[in-house]
Design goal:
The protein is α+β, with helices and mostly antiparallel strands. The protein is built from eleven helices and 32 strands. It has three domains: 1-65, no CATH class; 66-294 and 333-344 and 366-372, no CATH class; 387-480 and 511-618 and 630-649 and 660-673, no CATH class. The relative contact order is 0.07.
Length: 674
């Protein structure tokens, strides 16, 4: 009898094996263990095994790669190794590694992270089919903003094992790990405000491409012809509570209104594509799916939210510019030339007979393949209620009155609204937000999530803008070259420079223009007329809404489709780029004018805008901000079948034949700004 493929030993011979087959007993002695990857300095005399009883002890181990903790000592570890159970307590997590795993933006950093209890369960004989289960009780994280963007994140240890490591058994085990956390509390600190995030009952696990929990072998798709593997993970939680409040300083000595949001069960679906030969990440897809949301905001809360975002805008802008400069080191889509080469190889290979099994795997892989990295947010329904605050001049509270006089001294005169206690309801159906950070200009977008004809129309318009930009750039280069030649001829060095230019141009590779795109889609929406104390008990009427149902338009057609695109060169290439552009398409909308709603909305938004302009918030403004604010943006908005209705204010009883409404409708309206 010979024993083959005994992976964890080397030099194992038959004379070292003593088996009593029918009794189910056996012994192995003086083994030299080969690949104990989680420990170092482990010798055979430290192992005491009662093999068939499933009991064992390991003592005084020096753990090799516990990358998520720091200051971990052996006395904090309680392991029953062969039973596959272990427990750790009072751990301090490594902030840098945690930042890399979460892939946090560079404008925020983790200051401290702790976990009170960790338990692990491993089924040693079922590692191919069952995951390693990690259980955590309470995690506390402290985060704060950076004055300047920090260094970019390192590759995540889960996403890239790096080097020449091939995708093998160890990588499959790591990819298949599951995680359960009872609660996570995150405290976020910035110069302007503090925020807290509380999540409960978090689960992270591997799933099938249909997002079902199954055998680990069904949670990945490996295509040996492409040399790629797809892995699927899902993270869900029961509740998420968000609360933000302003930081009280000498400059912001006023009473602020906390902003709160509570969401129900939500989940994140993640797809990662890796190369088989080195485990490096090629692209990834993250999809956040939120449950139905109901959010009530007063004008003071809306002003607070706007101020908080304004305080972070400068840092976010700097971090975005840093990501664009470092785009060459990020997971990016293959170039258009690469796709053309792949298609030619596929066409050439199509004539040769292929293995039916490999062909089936290839088709299955193509069905779930990701060409480029993308991020998505989706919610089925969002109900937003905008409400008035009670007039602070009638409160009689000194602190509120003091803030009102300091922040807006003339606000008492402006606050006389047409209506008091007004409220407006806005309902969004199937709201989607997509972000593609690394897209090559000129590359096909057929692989984008829920590709539609609106994207094709936008691409045609963007091609015209790019052609115009190239023409202007060519004319500018020609004018600059003529001016340079005139100056060089005066210096007597014209021939020398002309001889150097072709060589210099030949050594410089042509930079590849890239873009980052944001796509906002809304399948349906209703914006209702403002309700007051007089109309609160009546059925709300629509002020601005989609008219798709009345016109029997397809359900998959978006009522609102907006795309924002920015252009850049990676690696900080100093080269002119086209201006950003915004393309929008609004399908079948109806506006029913109501003067009370128009006046209330104008006063509501004007109050927010004036408060933001006069707020004593330390935004750390710089001299460069006015220049960035005046950046040119090309805009094109297409409105299909808009309808405007002007109802009569009061019906006349003595004139039954009098028209009650004036309706104006257009087939297509186009608004452009260049």
């Amino acid at each position: 009898m010979s024993m083959l493929c005994f992976r964890f030993t080397k030099g194992l011979s038959v004379d070292k094996i003593s088996l009593s087959t029918l009794k189910g007993e056996g012994e192995l002695a003086n083994l030299e263990l080969d690949e104990i990857v989680f420990t170092k300095g482990l010798s055979v005399d430290k192992i005491s095994l009662s093999t068939l009883k499933g009991e064992g002890e390991l003592a005084n181990l020096e753990l090799d790669e516990i990358v998520f903790t720091k200051g971990l000592s052996v006395d904090k570890i309680s392991l029953s190794t062969l039973k596959g159970e272990g427990e750790l307590a009072n751990l301090e997590l490594d902030e840098i590694v945690l930042q890399d795993v979460l892939d946090l933006p560079t404008w925020v950093t983790i200051k401290k992270a702790t976990c009170n209890k960790v338990a692990i369960k491993i089924q040693w004989t079922k590692l191919k089919t069952h995951p390693i289960c990690l259980y955590m009780d309470q995690i506390d994280i402290e985060m704060e903003t950076c004055d300047e963007p920090r260094a970019p994140n390192n590759p995540s240890p889960f996403m890239s094992q790096g080097g020449d490591t091939k995708y093998g058994f160890a990588e499959k085990v790591v990819d298949g790990m599951s995680l359960t956390i009872n609660s996570v509390t995150i405290r976020f600190i910035s110069h302007a405000f503090t925020a807290s995030f509380q999540l409960s009952r978090i689960r992270a696990r591997s799933t099938t491409p249909q997002w079902q929990v199954a055998d680990l072998r069904m949670t990945r798709i490996k295509d040996t012809e492409r040399g790629m593997v797809l892995t699927f993970k899902e993270i869900d939680w029961q509740t998420l509570r968000i609360e933000a409040d302003a930081v009280k300083t000498e400059k912001t000595n006023y009473v602020s209104t906390p902003v709160r949001l509570i969401t129900n069960q939500s989940r994140i679906r993640i797809v990662i594509k890796k190369q088989l030969h080195d485990c490096s990440v090629v692209s990834s897809k993250l999809h956040l799916i939120l449950d139905d949301l109901l959010w009530v905001l007063t004008d003071s809360q809306l002003k607070a939210m706007a101020s908080y975002m304004q305080s972070l805008s400068k840092l976010i802008r700097k971090s975005t510019e840093q990501n664009k400069r470092d785009a060459s080191s990020q997971p990016s889509p293959p170039s258009p030339q690469h796709h053309a080469t792949q298609r030619s190889h596929a066409a050439a290979a199509g004539t040769a007979p292929r293995n039916p099994q490999l062909e089936a795997v290839s088709k299955f892989f193509s069905k779930y393949d990701m060409v480029e990295t993308s991020y998505h947010i989706f919610t089925r329904r969002l109900d937003l209620h905008l409400c008035d605050d009670t007039n602070p001049m009638e409160q009689g509270k000194r602190d509120v009155l003091h803030w009102w006089q300091v922040c807006c001294p003339s606000e008492q005169e402006k606050f006389n609204r047409r209506t008091d206690g007004g409220a407006m309801q806005i309902t969004f159906h199937r709201l989607m937000l997509d972000y593609y950070p690394y897209h090559f200009v000129g590359m096909n977008k057929k692989h984008w999530f829920r590709h539609s004809e609106c994207m094709d129309a936008r691409d045609q318009w963007a091609e015209l803008l790019l052609s115009e930009f190239k023409h202007q750039l060519k004319e500018w280069k020609k004018a600059t070259a003529d001016a340079a030649e005139g100056q060089e001829s005066k210096d007597g060095s014209q021939e020398e420079v002309r001889g150097q230019q072709p060589g210099a141009r030949g050594h410089k590779p042509r930079p590849k223009l890239m873009s980052s795109g944001i796509v906002f889609r809304l399948e349906d929406f209703e914006l209702y007329q403002v309700s007051t104390s007089d109309t609160r008990h009546s059925t709300p009427k629509k002020f601005f809404s989609s008219d798709k149902k009345a016109l029997y338009l397809p359900q998959e057609m978006s009522a609102v489709h907006l795309e924002y695109t920015e252009y850049y060169f990676p690696e900080g290439v100093d080269h002119p780029v086209p201006s950003p552009n915004i393309y929008g398409q609004i399908n079948a909308v109806q506006l029913t004018l109501d003067y009370m709603t128009v006046l209330w909305a104008n006063q509501f938004l004007l109050n927010v805008a004036q408060s933001m302009a006069a707020a004593p918030m330390d935004r750390q403004e710089s001299v460069e901000e006015p220049a960035s604010a005046s950046l040119h943006v090309d805009i094109r908005l297409e409105i299909l079948m808009p309808k405007i209705s002007l109802p009569a204010e009061k019906p006349v009883a003595d004139q039954p034949d009098r028209r009650q409404m004036l309706v104006a409708q257009s087939l297509r309206t186009v608004l452009t700004l260049y």
